[in-house]
Amino acid sequence: MPVQQPVATQKATQRATGAYALLDSLKQHGVKHIFGYPGGAILPIYDELYKFEERGDLEHILVRHEQGAAHAADGYARATGTVGVCFATSGPGATNLVTGIATAHMDSIPLLVITGQVPRAMIGTDGFQETDIWGITLPIVKHSYVVRDPHDMARIIAEAYHLCHTGRPGPVLVDIPKDVGAEECDYLPVKPGDVKLVGYNPAKTFDEHLCSQALDLIRDAHKPLLYVGGGAIAAGAHAEVKQFAERFGLPTTTTLMGIGAFDEHHPLSVGMLGMHGTAYANFAVTECDLLIAIGARFDDRVTGRLSGFAPDAKIIHVDIDPAEIAKVRVPNVAIVGDVKQVLQEMLSQSKQEAKSTQTKDWLQQIDIWKDDYPMVAPNYTDKLSPQEVIVEVGTQAPNAYYTTDVGQHQMWAAQFLKNGPRRWISSAGLGTMGFGIPAAMGAKIAVGDAEQVICISGDASVQMNIQELGTLKQFGIAVKTIVINNGWQGMVRQWQEAFYQERYSSSRMEPSMPDLVMLAQAYGVKGMRVTDPSQLKDAIAEMLAHDGPVLMDVQVRKNENCYPMVAPGKSNAEMVGLPTPKVR
Length: 584
Known about the structure:
Blueprint: E1 14-17, H1 18-28, E2 33-36, H2 43-54, E3 59-62, H3 66-80, E4 84-88, H4 92-95, H5 98-107, E5 111-117, H6 133-136, E6 143-146, H7 153-165, E7 171-177, H8 178-182, E8 184-187, H9 208-220, E9 224-228, H10 230-234, H11 238-248, E10 252-254, E11 269-272, H12 279-287, E12 290-294, H13 300-303, E13 314-319, E14 333-336, H14 339-349, H15 360-372, H16 386-396, E15 401-404, H17 408-416, E16 424-425, H18 436-447, E17 453-458, H19 469-475, E18 480-485, H20 490-499, H21 516-522, E19 526-530, H22 536-545, E20 550-555, E21 565-566, E22 575-576
Parallel strand pairs: 2-3, 2-4, 4-5, 5-7, 6-7, 9-10, 9-12, 10-11, 12-13, 13-14, 15-16, 15-17, 17-18, 18-20, 19-20
Antiparallel strand pairs: 1-8, 21-22
């Protein structure tokens, strides 16, 4: 019997529309959920999406505003570490995504943004709902595409997805003219591993000798501090951070983006540093003789007055993005590489070493600062403090995923909640009010019914995207939202009190505040109100037990300020609002 010769295999093409090529490419890359809002220019894609949803291949979450779609995809990405996907039509649909794109860009979140565009022949004619979203978003994306030919769709989506999550993550925009979505082509899928981008070379290796130099500095230091940012979260390096801190006895502080990268219950934790960081973190960074920056970018809200930030310290800086090295502080040792891999290498090089005792005196000093300046939630007899609300929900739901809006409540949540990896989701770099509810929506879709997702918001922030309560109701997304309601734009009021001689210009919200309970009920969402400290514990338990979305309006003390605080132009050691230290 003759031996059969192997037949050369070729990938099969099929005739399909650009819309099909888009959606099938997303499916090929493991996308399961899309957040979006339809409109004229993107209708060919939505018409094809109807068929994908009928087959159960994809699920589309219809938001009430395109900004909600971007934030929801962002929350999805932060909760999972995968790429979040959102859709919008041309013109105002696309421009409504801009704030969400900028939010993801500032925080290095992998976001794939798909926008509809007017037909190719109309581009440049100022046609109805034509906007150059490619040009508008250039400064706030990692890369952009306009799909001019449906034959290119599979390649472009594969490249865009790859760009989103490799190297330093970030948003990528793909703009698709209406006729490209409707036009047929010979569609050939591009698998995730088949992408080759000339000139795109994110750091995959690093100089191991630099790790040795960094270890020498660590061994010589008497007052080291491990400073951990969002890059450790993006790299999934929490286990390595813990092992590294323990091996060398390193007190560990995190940025707002780095919360969750290190267990704040750990004795080496000093919490968050910066403008509203813990006193002991800020004292530690001022007094340290070695600062080990892991996936952090020396943000101004962290450093305070730069000349006073770790003024006597040598610097080790580890980051995936070479653009961040020496941008703010020139390091003694700079390692460009994946945080997880770099830490693994340093752990490997030092694995024969006994745990360091060299930092014993330094850790004792930090313990004294912790004892002198503890983070304590105030309790008032007549009115709830915002801090005790956050402490109570953190006590009852210690393992929940938490999203926040922006303002005082965000800082209190950062100070008092103790979050695990990827369970802290907050707009850090851009400081986007209205982020909380849609981000919680995306996170809840991502993690499913087995996990609790709670949004901490304020009475000003919550009104920015409160229409997404309709999305929560329609899709049965059981997000719990707690509104810390003090009747003000709280952080604005605090700054006006401290720096503008109490001229409260346009910061009071109370005169036109809607009844949030009635508003929630109008959307079909359970509404609750808490006005007295005696109600708080039971009300939170009731909220958590409810099988569905809840909006809880918690009336808190109106003039509570968020402390500690580093004023603009001051060093981290010059905090206001500290308690009087103990007499020893």
